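Dear Dr. V.,

Thank you for agreeing to look over these. As mentioned in my earlier message, I'm a first-year student in the group and I'm still getting used to reading structure tokens, so any feedback on how I've presented them would be very welcome. I ran two proteins. I've put each sequence directly above its structure. The first is here:
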Amino acid sequence: MQTARSSTGERSGDGANSGRGGSRLLRRVVRLTLALCIGAALLLALGFFWFVSTLPTEEVKLDRNADGIVALTGGASRIVDAIELLAAKRGQRLLISGANRSTNAGEISRLHPEFAAIVRCCVDFDRSLNTLGNAIETRKWAEQRNIRSLIVVTSGYHMPRAKAEIAHQLPGVTLIAFPVLSEKLRAEPWWSSAATLRLVLLEYLKFVFSQVRMHVNPSAGVAD
């Protein structure tokens, strides 16, 4: 009887110790998970402030020409600015990337007859749907024309992601940024408007996602 009680007590003690050990392990996992989440949030926050500090706040003046120009659509002023660069002989040919069906040589010539001749001569279009698609189509276009330097025209807040995607597709090509500043961002700082803050924050998250994708799957879209 004494032996039986002793065995029962040992089993009970082992169960209690096992329960306490499992509880301690669970607390450690929770603490580690919480620490990782806090660290990731801090890293994202610091990255966001770095991101906005790199955004252009003034128009740039190009100090060199390039073989070609690419304009990523999304704002009418991007296309006009890119055609003006082409007309000024900053590049030999222009790709308007991500153009919708209504954006074509005839429509641009109708809206801007002063550019009709150069649009018919030296402007190409693609119908890509996103920034990765822009970069892939730009690579195909640049490789066909042996372009070794490229002026990139897009909105200032979109420039970091656009350049990163194009540089990933065309690592041997020199990229020259020509950011187009919207009147809204020019008139007020990004933090003064909820809509502007949301726009910049969303673009930052897209930039982070693109960086992760390029590191995890660097060959995505490059060889298609």
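The second protein is here, in the same arrangement:
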Amino acid sequence: MKLYGIKTCDSVRKARKFMKEHGIDYTFVDFRETPVDAAKIAQWLEKVSIDTLFNNRGTTYRTLRLKEKNLTDAEKAEWLAKENMLIKRPVIEYGDLAIVGYNEAKYREIFTAQKE
């Protein structure tokens, strides 16, 4: 399992805490230290929609004034690769799944069901 995000993000902190509390091993990939490229974005977009992955609520989105650009889905994917802070966090790769965002109920269902 790989958990992608940034250390300072509250949602990422919650996800990491959840994994630790439930004894779930994972590898953490920090976007700031190891940027995610277009190929990885494309892999995720095979599993989740662009609207799920693209964070249009964050500071980066507002700072870049992307709302004014009326981006197509392809343009959004390009921006995700150029500016990883636009990726909704965390992104977890688990088996053939890509799980985006922190959702404790969903995490319990996916990650702890196998352990019981």
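From my reading of the second output: The chain has a mean pLDDT of 95. The CA atoms of residues 1 and 95 lie 7 Å apart. Does that match how you would interpret it?

Kind regards,
E.
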